[in-house]
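Demo today. Your pick:
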Amino acid sequence: MVEEAKKYAHFRLVIVNGTAYVKQYEKAYKTRDVLTLWGVLQLLKLYPGRLPNVDLMFQCHDWPSIGKDEYRRGEKDVVQAPPPLFHYCGSESTFDIVFPDWSLLGVTGHARRLEREGNSTRLEGGQIHGGNGPPALPSSLASRFQPEINIKPWVPLMKDMEEANQRINWTNKEPYAFWKGNVRTGVRWKLGICNSIKDWNAQVLPQVNFIE
């Protein structure tokens, strides 16, 4: 059944007795696959011996791929079991299995610091090897990792937000909205209509990766 999802997948991840093995079928957009594997490494190191053995296919695109209509004759008449495909996205009309997306957080500084300290992890021959110390990006992948969005790692980002919130009480803040991201995906283009401080008290900006 797992093999059925291969045609949709960017990579296959197998975890056996706490060791992760990866087979890449095609390169994902920018570093989405890299950071997904990085997150799995964190789980393995933070919770040793607690992750079960798994064998899964993973896709890194934006849109779900396993449509329910392809596997049903009627509402309850299933023709065959859908292939298990893990994905960042899901919907009521698809069977994709939703998995966390870590690629929105900028982890470059963290990865490079750990690499300098000799705590990096490497990917060789499809096997992920761990070093000592905190989790890091696989060093063989970190060399081609570039920050695509100007966002700090979550811990310092949360600290910045907490400090900013303490400077001005919420009741004294201006009723002003700010949003930045990809306005070309799905119905987000409608959000661009609200880009008017005068009419909507809102600023909506497109995310341009190469500028960031």
Summary: Helices lie at 32-46, 108-116, 139-142, 154-167, 197-200.
